[in-house]
Design goal:
- Helix 6 crosses helix 7.
- The chain has about 375 residues and is of the alpha/beta class.
- It folds into two domains: about 325 residues, TIM Barrel; about 40 residues, no CATH class.
- Helix 13 links the parallel strand 12 and strand 13.
- Helices cover about 40% and strands about 15% of the residues.
């Protein structure tokens, strides 16, 4: 069985002769720099990382349709506002002014200083015209050639979208969003309707050319203690629109609807399931997520991706074996599981430890 076949069967909770080999979504740039000093080939970049470790990581459709950023086209024009040599303050492509480190910016969170929308007038002037799903510039010039290549794919093909909470937060910022949920609920519903209409049209347009195997919905709605808004607020303002979008995804015969949120998402799992999601990632251990207990509670309600503590890899071989042994056998036996770390590999993980992790976990395959 190839990786795509295994992926599709995993979402049906069917038997596979082994799990999908996709043990991490990637590594930090700072991790790569460290590994090069420890024997990692400096010429290995991008997708070659997965090939080096014989992984079957999905290929994602390369269009401008949103992911961790909003699906604007055209995007905002980037502009550097201030550079002190250590940090740089700039306007990014999502219209957000933020301050971040110049060296290895992925090792820390940026400081968000200003978001693109403060009121309806600003939204209608600066945002709405960027949300036309029909814009041809959203697709790469070689898209027709890529479609032909996708027809013979042996790994899963994914499509990114940004979820309703992620979209709102990128527009308004956390604090302004919280106030607006109470002060101008009609405005929130208007934004959500625009988000929904964009993805209804965009998903259908994409599927006229190629049917991906799954959609990855980026939300990052949770921190280590739970969601940033209450499940009730989500169900009131966001669930109705997300449910309609997921129904469209299912109508297009797309198998997986995976929600990506860090933090402790325990209270949000049933909310997203009611919306139609059938997969979640990454189940951060440091936020209290225990995939064994979650599987026992939810059984075959959704596919679990992740949940292996990346921090164990920063310790020693025994810690790695303990972490793998207490989770992977049970999860593979229960089916509907893709073994993976609970996020990308941070720079405190030695190269030899990661190599050992890959070799050890695959003893169960």
């Amino acid at each position: 069985m190839n990786g795509r076949e295994i992926f599709l069967r995993t979402f049906d909770f069917e038997y596979t002769d082994r799990p999908l080999k996709w043990e991490t979504p990637g590594i930090w740039s700072a991790t790569r720099k460290r590994w090069i000093t420890e024997g990692y080939d400096e010429n290995i970049r991008g997708r070659a990382f997965f090939e080096y470790f014989h992984m079957e990581a999905p290929v994602f459709l390369p269009f401008k349709g949103g992911w961790t950023g909003n699906p604007y086209y055209p995007m905002f024009e980037k502009n550097t506002i201030f550079d002190d040599g250590i940090n740089v303050t700039h306007l990014d492509k999502d219209g957000i002014i933020k301050k971040e480190r110049k060296k290895d910016p992925d090792t820390s969170m940026p400081q968000f200083l200003k978001f693109p929308v403060e009121n309806r007038k600003q939204y209608e002037k600066d945002i709405r015209h960027r949300m036309d799903y029909r814009s041809d510039g959203r697709f790469p010039d070689d898209f027709k050639q890529l479609i032909m290549e996708y027809e013979t794919r042996t790994v899963p093909l994914g499509m990114y979208i940004i979820g309703p909470f992620g979209y709102l937060r990128n527009l308004l910022g956390d604090e302004n969003l919280m106030y607006t949920l109470f002060d101008d609920q009609e405005f929130i519903h208007m934004i959500m309707n625009d988000w929904m209409e964009f993805y209804l049209g965009f998903i259908e347009k994409v599927c006229q050319s190629v049917i991906p195997d799954f959609v990855m919905v980026w939300e990052d709605i949770c921190y280590n203690m739970g969601p940033l808004i209450s499940p009730l607020q989500f169900e009131t303002f966001m669930s109705p629109y997300l449910t309609i979008v997921i129904n469209k995804i299912r109508q297009m015969n797309i198998k997986g609807i995976i929600v990506d949120t860090d933090g402790n998402c325990a209270s949000m799992l049933p909310v997203y399931v009611r919306c139609g999601a059938n997969g979640f990632y990454p189940f951060e251990v440091q936020a209290g997520m225990d995939i064994v207990e979650i599987r026992k509670q939810y059984k075959e309600n959704f596919v679990i991706i992740g949940g292996i503590d990346k921090k164990a890899l920063a310790k020693d071989e025994q810690a790695i074996m303990n972490e793998v042994d207490k989770k992977v056998p049970f999860m593979l036996h229960s089916k509907g599981y893709i073994p993976m770390l609970d996020h990308t590999v941070p720079p405190d993980v030695p190269f030899k430890n990661f190599v050992f992790f890959i070799e050890y976990i695959r003893k169960y395959y």
